[in-house]
Amino acid sequence: MTDVEARLRELVIETPSWGYGDSGTRFGTFPQPGRPRDVFERIDDAAEVHRLTGTAGAVAFHFPWDAVDDYGALRAHVEERGLRVGAVNPNLFQDPDYKLGSVCHPDAAVRKKALEHLVECVGIADALGATAQSLWLADGTNYPGQDDLRERRRRLDASLASLYAELPETQELLVEYKLFEPAFYATDLADWGSALLVCQKLGERAKVLVDLGHHAQGVNIEQIVATLDAEGRLGGFHFNNRKYADDDLIVGSVNPFELFLIFLELESDPTHPLPRLTIDQAHNVEPKVEAMVLSVVNLQEAYAKALLVDRDALRAAQQAGDVLGAHEALLDAYRTDVRPLCARARAAAGAAEDPVAEHRASGYAERVATERETRQEITR
Ligand code: RM4
Ligand code: MN
Ligand code: MN
């Protein structure tokens, strides 16, 4: 086994429970046959992705979407399926009370309610054995003057300080930022700098989470990754891809070179282990399990290419001021066909050589479409 194959075998991608359920756009939702009826079936789909890829061994949860009465039973189901629990994601964007925000809301009673949900999720994470709470806020304003920007910032800092005080040593707080949407004038955590400032005030277990769909057009995400990693504040990723906005398309489908460059940065400091790598996608017209399988395969290939970069040649060219020699060192690796290597690594791990083909041949989609036909309860 080559070094690259060994490293590929260690790669762990978290797939999102919410990526298996119904999703749509504001224009409509197209329910798919066989869509899971509850969180247990979402886990079953995640297990199928892991069986095929060998790399998707954890599932991230979203609450209250994944709420159950017995978290011991949920954890047991995850473990029975050969998976482990990934990050726990609270939800502060759907309740009507959050119309003007959650932890930044002008009304202290709403902020209190939001904080209570965050603390509840700390408890859920504990019960599930999760080691991170991953926070995304929809907070922001739509019109200039709608609320006091500095006041909102103070409310944010105070609320998150209260949350952080409740966080056990075993958990990290991941802080995600997003340029716009649903707020259209000012998002309270709009960029990596705002998120980093919050984290630096909170403490060392607060780290920034980068979602690939949450930047302005043309932003150099790999440079953000390099900066956060150098500061020891890169907590993790939400992988997806976009053309225009927060499109949540299959990772690597639109801009695979960017994905390769991100992995290159993740590999640049050998003393830093990989951060939490989560997929955050919404598959609206494509079959969801197959889309997730393809996403994991794309991540494996981008990672393998980054591992193939001749670091010595790259450094020598950089030192010599050989502009195109250095660039060529990247292209050499990027242009390598890593599909056979990834197939070998998967087969060695007991997964599929060709996960998409095997998924199609397995009849899984048809089987769950029949089994899940009786639709008593849809939780999302
Ligand atoms: C947001 C963001 C969050 C995700 C929600 C559903 O755009 O990416 O991570 O939890 O969508
Ligand atoms: Mn996200
Ligand atoms: Mn998003």
DSSP summary: helix tally: 14
Return the average pLDDT rounded to an integer: 97
Strand content: 5-15%
* Spatial gap, N to C terminus: 43 Å
Ligands and ions found: beta-L-rhamnopyranose, manganese (II) ion
The helix-strand sequence is HEEEHEHEHEEHEEHEHEHEHHHHHH
Q: What is the 3D form?
A: globular
Biggest sheet descriptor: 5 strands, parallel
Order of strands across the biggest sheet? 6-8-10-11-12
Give the uncertain stretches in residue-range form. none
Radius of gyration of CA atoms, rounded to a whole number = 21 Å
Question: What's this entry about, in short?
Answer:
It is built from 14 helices and twelve strands. The chain has helices at residues 3-10, 39-53, 71-80, 108-128, 149-166, 192-202, 221-230, 256-266, 288-307, 311-319, 323-334, 339-348, 355-362, 364-371; strands at 14-16, 24-25, 28-29, 58-63, 84-90, 132-135, 140-141, 172-176, 186-187, 206-211, 234-239, 276-279.
Structure description:
The protein has helices at 3-10, 39-53, 71-80, 108-128, 149-166, 192-202, 221-230, 256-266, 288-307, 311-319, 323-334, 339-348, 355-362, 364-371; strands at residues 14-16, 24-25, 28-29, 58-63, 84-90, 132-135, 140-141, 172-176, 186-187, 206-211, 234-239, 276-279. With 380 residues, it is α/β, with parallel strands linked by helices. Strand 10 (206-211), helix 7 (221-230) and strand 11 (234-239) form a beta-alpha-beta unit. Helix 1 (3-10) crosses helix 9 (288-307), helix 2 packs across helix 9 (288-307) and helix 7 (221-230) packs parallel to helix 8. The longest helix has 21 residues, at 108-128. The termini are far apart. The relative contact order is 0.14. The mean pLDDT is 97.
